[in-house]
Amino acid sequence: SPPGLLLLTSFFLHMEEGHASPTRLVCDNRLIQKYIGEAKDMEKRVGQCQALPALSCPIVLPLVDVSLQQWKSKSNETKRQEILCDLALLVGAVVGAQGQVTQECGARQLSQLHRHANSFLLLLQTFSWEAGPWEPGCSPRSMEQTHVTSIFLTYRQLVQGKLRFFFHDLAKDLCK
Questions:
Q1: Cα dihedral 94, 100, 102, 103 sign
Q2: DSSP 62
Q3: CATH at 101
């Protein structure tokens, strides 16, 4: 079963009257640890692909480093918007790289990464807050890269950092 399916299934099993309740995903710390583990595995596997060439057309990746002090000062909605922007840019980078990577091993890993990142993107778009639906068109801090492995590194850092912190912050309110 595709890994993104678990994420979406666990999400849909915990919906209330039209409002997405991220409770299980947020309250069960084992799930985010599982996604961090999967991100590390994908990064390791793409590193084992033989002779991945540099991308001829650079891709734009979000800068996903996070200052805990700044992070704590943001509202949950602001955090969600920031992660959505990062994920949208990351998914775009994966698609751009997929168009350039013909080597089977790299293409297979990019396809898996696309499913994972897109699942998180769809999931966070459906979390309901007062602020309403997510509007694309944000411009996160970014950098250009020509190495396929940097996409996987960025994804792992995003899941391990902002996404994990975001779920932790939500858990304070949802998991009493």
A1: negative
A2: E
A3: 1.20.1250.10
